[in-house]
């Protein structure tokens, strides 16, 4: 009978199938030749001691024991071209996985995306990086695949209670992702590989009768007697359906403004805001792995750190080993940062958002905006940063130690942020209480990660799109909006997800709830 084992091995053994078989043969006291196959179920790194170990969960099949390679396949989809239509606004993970689930349930999704397809988006990303031109409909946040497509493709989620994480991972594998994402403790796909997977998902939706409309921005939601009737696009076209999944992402401010204007109930939601810090990957490796050189068998080291500073949580967010910082503005007159990594995480720099949890009381200066107070707070910082850095897509930047000492940096070295930087005292970007927490927090970070607090680290501001500043309330059982029948707020933009996996799960759940109402 196959044996399941938990073990700790060196990185060299974990990376070499023959060495691993030899090691396991000694553990179970058989010849290596008797081991037919070893399946790795889970893999994680234990870097708590100087001698770094790899934690493995494996199943060992000996000769004669039944073993068959399992191929992960897509569900059986049927043609839905003539089925009842459901509008899905947004082609991010929430919208795309909602559309797939609708097809699986026999319903026809009409996916409406304001931005371009993944290939078309690349021209607009080049424009913002090189020419400082922001396309309000096609950028790092808007377009096929949503913000996650060009933001590393991290698949780690703590929201296990929200739904079936494994199902989402297996669907991604079936669409072309590496099976490693089923095994790794902190899986990611990589910005270079995710676009092809997103494109294949879209093609599958179309193949089975769904529609995907690009360059189509929703300018109105048709409501009669508190029930959805459809939407209106920027061209004045109407698309009708009494079922609407609203999965527009955390940066669709025009949608929040539309809902507020139509008096469709929304509420301000706390989020987190701060800077994006860049170190050399070599330094982060030396801190995390306690060595001068990590070797060929260890991946570029990530880090995760949390501190309580002046009663606020300050923590790392969306850490990108071997990655770069990207410009993520969605309108002219603002600057926003985010980070991403290619699949190999082979860039020489590492970056992470370092953010502080905000509270609703922080938005009081913007109280006149009601439910949009948090969004206006967010906008004010992004616009101030734009002015301070020279009114282009350059961002305010400062050396880390200089920042803690309220000292303008004499120079800023070239960083991975392509549009460039402007030396600014970062305290000018943020309200005083946030600047003070950041200064104290970086000193605390330096105590926990020796070497982290260095003037070779460069801070870029702001990291402001961590999550939606608005929540669109819905019934916790039916997922329907509390006020508008047929409206299903979904994913990150509605305040119910935080990342690719949780957004995809939420999209599927909304689709399932709609199918339930149509039985």
TrEMBL record:
Keywords for the protein's UniProt record, in alphabetical order: Glycosyltransferase, Transferase
Domain FAD/NAD(P)-binding positions: 85-255
InterPro entries: FAD-binding_protein, FAD-depend_C, FAD/NAD-bd_sf, FAD/NAD-binding_dom
EC identifiers of the protein: 2.4.2.59
SUPFAM superfamilies attached to this UniProt entry: FAD/NAD(P)-binding domain
Pfam families: FAD-depend_C, Pyr_redox_2
Gene Ontology molecular function: any one: oxidoreductase activity
Signal peptide region: none
This protein's name: Thiamine thiazole synthase
Enzyme class: transferase
UniProt domain FAD-dependent protein C-terminal: residue ranges: 270-466
């Amino acid at each position: 009978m196959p044996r399941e084992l938990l073990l700790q091995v060196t990185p060299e053994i974990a990376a070499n199938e023959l060495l691993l078989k030899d090691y396991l043969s000694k553990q179970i006291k058989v010849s290596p030749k008797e081991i037919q196959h070893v399946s790795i179920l889970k893999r994680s790194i234990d870097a708590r001691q100087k001698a770094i170990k790899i934690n493995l969960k494996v199943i060992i099949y000996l000769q004669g024991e039944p073993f068959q390679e399992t191929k992960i396949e897509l569900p059986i989809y049927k043609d839905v071209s003539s089925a009842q239509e459901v509008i899905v606004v947004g082609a991010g993970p929430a919208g795309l996985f909602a559309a797939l689930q609708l097809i699986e349930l026999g319903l026809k999704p009409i996916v409406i995306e304001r931005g371009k397809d993944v290939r078309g988006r690349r021209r607009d990303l080049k424009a913002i990086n090189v020419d400082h031109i922001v396309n309000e409909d096609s950028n790092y946040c808007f377009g096929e695949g949503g913000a996650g497509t060009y933001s590393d493709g991290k698949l780690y989620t703590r929201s296990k209670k929200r739904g079936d994480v494994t199902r989402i991972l297996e669907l991604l594998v079936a669409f072309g992702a590496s099976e490693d994402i089923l095994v790794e403790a902190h899986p990611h796909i990589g910005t270079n590989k995710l676009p092809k997977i997103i494109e294949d998902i879209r093609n599958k939706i179309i193949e089975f009768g769904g529609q995907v409309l690009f360059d189509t921005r929703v300018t109105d939601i048709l409501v009669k007697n508190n029930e959805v009737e459809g939407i209106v696009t920027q061209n004045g076209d109407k698309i009708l359906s009494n079922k609407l999944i609203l999965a527009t992402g955390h940066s669709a401010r025009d949608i929040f403004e539309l809902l507020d204007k139509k008096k469709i109930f929304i509420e301000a939601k706390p989020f987190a805001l701060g800077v994006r810090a860049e170190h050399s990957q070599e330094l982060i490796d030396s801190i995390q792995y306690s060595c001068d050189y990590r070797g060929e068998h260890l991946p570029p080291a990530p880090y995760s750190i949390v501190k309580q500073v002046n009663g606020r949580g300050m923590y790392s967010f969306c850490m990108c080993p071997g990655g770069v910082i990207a410009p993520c503005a969605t309108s002219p007159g603002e600057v926003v940062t985010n980070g991403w990594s290619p699949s190999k995480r082979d860039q020489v720099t590492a970056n992470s958002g370092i953010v502080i949890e905000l509270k609703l009381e922080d938005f009081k200066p913007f109280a006149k905006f009601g439910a949009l107070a948090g969004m206006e707070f967010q906008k004010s910082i992004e616009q101030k940063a734009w002015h301070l850095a020279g009114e282009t897509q350059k961002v305010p930047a400062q050396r880390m130690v200089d920042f803690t000492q309220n000292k303008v940096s004499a120079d800023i070295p070239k960083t991975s942020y392509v549009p460039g930087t402007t030396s600014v005292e970062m305290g000018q970007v943020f309200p005083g209480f946030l600047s003070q927490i950041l200064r104290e927090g970086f000193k605390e970070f330096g105590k926990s990660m020796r070497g982290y607090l260095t003037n070779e680290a460069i801070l870029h501001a702001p990291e402001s799109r961590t999550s939606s500043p608005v929540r669109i309330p819905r019934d916790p059982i039916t997922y329907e909006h509390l006020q508008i029948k047929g409206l299903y707020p979904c994913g990150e933009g509605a305040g119910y997800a935080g990342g690719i996996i949780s957004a995809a799960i939420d999209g599927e759940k909304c689709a399932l709830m709609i199918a339930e109402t149509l039985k």
